[in-house]
Design a protein that fits this description.
The chain is an alpha/beta fold. About 50% of the residues lie in helices and about 10% in strands. It contains 18 helices and ten strands. The longest helix is centred in the C-terminal third of the chain and has 20 residues, at about 350-370. It is globular, with a radius of gyration of 20 Å.
């Protein structure tokens, strides 16, 4: 049986995700998903809990769902990719990685990854960065010097992430196959309705209590789901950051650079809302998504030491019969601890325990962001989903 890995947020799981899984799956193929936990890359809470999203994925073709811990799920594209690919590698029985793509050209994606890793490209990139643009814009502008096709890849969100997966695999020495599924339907972050629509449009409709408008795109989604919004913990975030600013403890946050910690501290002391805080921090070089990640990293206590390492464990969220067989095999092949029950926590090293404790805190905070807040301790009470 071939085991193909996917790295995803499923925020929420929708028809476009099912389309990708359907394109991969056959009777001799299993799909293992490394899925973001309760906080996501755009610097926000996930729209519904990781348990609900994992359950939808398992009902629609995924065989094993593993959690990408918060420090990596709420990180830059390269750290997000590095964390996800690392887990697939360390599982020890993944044959390849598949991803959605705007271009649908795996050879072009591989060539783009090779270009991004070259000394010549990075020398020119350093020159472009001095202009003050965001890293993403500087990188796509640099790619234009080597060919318009490379620039186009780096202007497409899924293609950009695909190149990061390929680069991460090379960094990790993970010799696996790569494949891509061409994206169909609406573009990333589009507000248009089509065969498949963007996750951002779905999230907005759900937050606006307009489930009927997107119901057809949401397989196995409960219209009575407990929806999350970071607005529900807005004052808690502002309060905590004011305390940290007063004690000069905002200096070691993940992805903090270029002296922006002073801008962050001054903004925290002035802002009376999250939107105002984001506005006061944002610069030409810092995108809004990066600013949101910065704020939540400060709130969740994610400092700059996490991303220097690989995720230290494999946290199982759920599996099917095929997935159960993958896990049995992984007991012989995995190079880091597999966490399926609370008893497995004894196998963690010090870094693993630190990541786990951070995940517990993140989940307890996420529980307060829900429309109907939940009690603490859900990480310990979480039951493996079996489909």
């Amino acid at each position: 049986m071939q085991n193909i890995g996917i790295i995803a947020e499923f925020n929420p799981f929708h028809s476009g995700h099912r389309y990708i899984i359907d394109e991969i799956k056959d009777e001799n193929t299993a799909v293992t998903v490394v899925m973001s936990g309760n906080f996501v890359q755009r610097g926000d809470t996930a729209i519904v809990s990781k348990g609900e999203r994992a359950a939808a994925a398992l009902k629609n073709g995924a065989d094993l769902v593993i959690e990408l811990p918060t420090p990596w799920s709420m990180a830059t594209a390269n750290d997000f990719a590095f964390g996800g690919v690392s887990i697939l590698k360390n599982l020890g029985n993944v044959d390849g990685i598949c991803f959605g793509s705007e271009c649908g050209d795996i050879e072009l994606l591989k060539k783009t990854a090779e270009l991004l890793m070259s000394d010549e490209f990075n020398a020119k990139l350093n020159d472009n960065l001095s202009g003050g643009d965001t890293f993403a814009k500087s990188r796509s502008n640099t790619a234009r010097l080597f060919g318009a096709e490379y620039e186009k890849v780096l202007q497409s969100p899924n293609d950009t992430l695909a190149t990061e997966y390929i680069i991460a695999a090379k960094r990790l020495g993970f010799d696996c196959g790569f494949s891509c599924i061409k994206r169909v339907g609406a573009a990333h972050d589009s507000a248009d309705f089509a065969e498949h629509i963007s996750a951002s449009l779905i999230r907005q409709q759900l937050k606006d209590d307009n489930f009927e408008a997107v119901q057809q795109y949401l397989p196995d989604f409960d219209k009575n789901s407990n929806i999350s919004s970071v607005a529900n913990i807005e004052n808690a975030i502002l309060c905590d950051l004011r305390r940290k600013a007063a004690t000069d403890s905002l200096c070691n946050i993940a992805d903090l650079s270029e002296g922006i910690e002073n801008r962050l501290k001054n903004a925290v002391l002035k802002a009376t809302s999250l939107d105002e805080l984001y506005s006061l921090i944002k610069t030409k070089r810092y995108t809004l998504a990066r600013v949101r990640r910065l704020v939540l990293s400060a709130y969740l206590g994610i400092d700059n030491t996490y991303h220097a390492k690989e995720p230290p464990y494999i946290r199982v969220l759920g599996f099917t019969k095929k997935g159960e067989q993958i896990l049995r095999d992984a007991k012989q092949t995995a190079s880091i601890p597999i966490i399926a029950t609370a008893a497995d926590l004894k196998n963690l090293d010090e870094f693993g325990k630190r990541v786990w404790q951070n995940e517990c805190i993140a989940t307890d905070i996420f529980s307060l962001s829900l429309t109907v807040p939940q009690v603490c301790g859900n990480e310990y009470y979480h039951k493996i989903i079996k489909e």
